[in-house]
Amino acid sequence: MATNSFLFVQTLHYLLKPIFLYFCLALGCLSCRHTSTPEPLDTDPNWIKLEIPRGIEANAIAGDLDKTLLVATKSMAYYTTDQGKTWHESKDFQGTVPSLYTHQDTVYPLLSLVEPKWPDKMASTALYFTTDYGKSWNRLPWEQVDRFKVPVGKVISTTGIMYQIQENKTFANADGSSLFLHPSTIIKRMGTTAQPINFPFKHILYNLHLDSRNRLYVAASGGTYRQENNTFYCCEDDMPAIIYVSKKPLP
Question: Closest by alpha carbon to 243, among 30, 100, 32?
Fold first, then answer.
């Protein structure tokens, strides 16, 4: 009787072993699929967050998230046609582009700051232009290089509402030669009224953009905010450039 019981257990073991292994393998595959899926960035009720891998900082924005969006990062311009799911290299400017100025469906990267200090930063010097939001580029004639001069970090809607980046800083010494940068603020001005908008994210901000639907785009650094001393740590080579897009017009 004991022998028969032993044989039964052994037979059951061999029959169930493949099923058990298959079950474990299936669990393992499900686990791998779950961990490899990135967490969604769209977790705020008012803002969409986009990231460009290894972009370090977003400096200027043109276009429309629902069509083609062009973004200039630390040195490279990228465009996306699928709402930020994938980014394509557009042009290597080998330096910062302070502004992407759009004029009659043509985008001009402005490569120099003629007024470098907030709140009156102004950009100029357009050497190139694109008519398809970064998919192809052309060189400007030399006589048109200084054709444009536009503000940086300031946009005005078709209804006259202005948005402007406010830099927040404290000086580290008495002569002002060293300073700490704190999270930037976005000010909304309507006539004589000015107030900060609800922008809860802690970043150094570089530029603003409004699309045809009056959604506000914010170009930001991917630097790590340190709440304990209200400063930023920057910059690793693999740090993303960050863009925020308001879900509603004129936030």
Answer: 100
Task: Name the residue with tokens 């009720």.
Answer: 45
Tell me the torsion sign for CA atoms 152, 154, 155, 159.
negative
pTM: 0.81
What CA–CA distance (Å, rounded) separates 201 from 18? 51
Model pLDDT for residues 43-76, shown as the tens digit of each residue: 799 999 999 999 999 999 999 999 999 999 988 9
Q: How far is CA 3 from CA 10, 11, 14, 17, in A?
A: 11, 12, 17, 21
**Beta bridge pairs of residue 185:** 166
